[in-house]
Amino acid sequence: MTRPSAPDSASRIANAVADSVQYQGRKASRQGSEQRRQAILDAAMRIIVREGVRAVRHRAVAAEAEVPLSATTYYFKDIDDLITDTFAQFVERSAAYMAHFWESTQGLLLEEVGKLDGTAESRRNLADEIARLAVEYVRHQLLTRRDHLMAEHAFHQEALLNPRLHELVRSHRLILLQGTTHFFQVLGSQQPRQDAEVLAGIIERMEYQGLLDGVENLNVEEMLAILRRYMYLVLGL
């Protein structure tokens, strides 16, 4: 295993997911047409975040996007195509965001791992720092990307009812899971995939709780204790 390459691999995977996204609706042929198509998809997502997937209708989306009703039916023959492409765009943008995230955390991660000297104290310090960074990540998501988290939950719920979204859900999950797996490989985990599944689940639960209770009501000490306990187990403490 070559540890320094792991964050780069995570970024490449996220970029590959972004490049693999396939849209169902009519493709735009001109720049102005593409801008209108994007406006329709953005409007549909705003409605999903604000009112839920069931509120997405051609007329409602046209009004939200401030385009003629005929524009929505031109690009998307039915509501299923519109919803599918709205979530396809969500996955594409999520992948681009996570690619940047893994690139930006590469130096910090390698710096922290470089402090390990074989002692329990160095592993404990690393676990504490990772727990702190994870809590900050959750807080940042809730403070600056709340709409993204709301869309994510709507996406997962809709996929339970719409088989056309299954592959998109798998791609979206892959973005976080593969990146987190590489993170644990850098740490030297013996079971990086399993460790990634657990950490991703913990973070997703904390984000959901933050959406329910509000970021101002987060129990930061409890979050730190949970994450610290988990990282102690991973690092053999």
TrEMBL record:
It holds the Pfam family TetR_N. Residues 57-76 bind DNA. The keyword DNA-binding applies. It comes from the Bacteria. One of its GO terms (molecular function) is DNA binding. Residues 34-94 form the HTH tetR-type domain. Keywords: DNA-binding. SUPFAM superfamilies: Homeodomain-like. This is Transcriptional regulator, TetR family. It comes from Pseudomonas indica.
